[in-house]
Design a protein that fits this description.
94 residues, alpha+beta, four-stranded antiparallel β-sheet, 22% strand
Length: 94
């Protein structure tokens, strides 16, 4: 959770006993990478999968299109790698 919170623009709410984080990524809506626009949670999750190989779930299916859902049911090493990839992908959005 700390690593996610360290990424500028992400708003992270600490889960209460859940195995996932629900992260507000709306600060990045309207940004582009090589002409590819991100304007909602579905496009954001597709962008992360395509550019960083990171699989997340769009918050739209959970009633909040500003957010994505990130599973924390993985090893610490896998989580650190995934968050590093996510941070690099976000950094390329302008």
């Amino acid at each position: 959770m700390t690593l996610l919170g360290d990424i500028p623009g992400l708003r992270v709410s600490r889960p209460d006993g859940a195995f996932y984080a629900f992260v507000d990524v709306s600060a990045f809506f309207g940004r582009t990478d090589s002409g590819r626009a991100v304007s909602n949670s579905v496009e954001f999750t597709e962008y992360l999968l395509d550019t960083a190989g990171v699989s997340t779930v769009a918050g739209a299916g959970f009633g909040d299109d500003r957010c994505i859902r990130i599973s924390t049911a993985a090893s610490e090493a896998a989580l650190r790698e995934g968050i590093a990839r996510l941070a690099r992908a976000i950094d390329t959005l302008r």
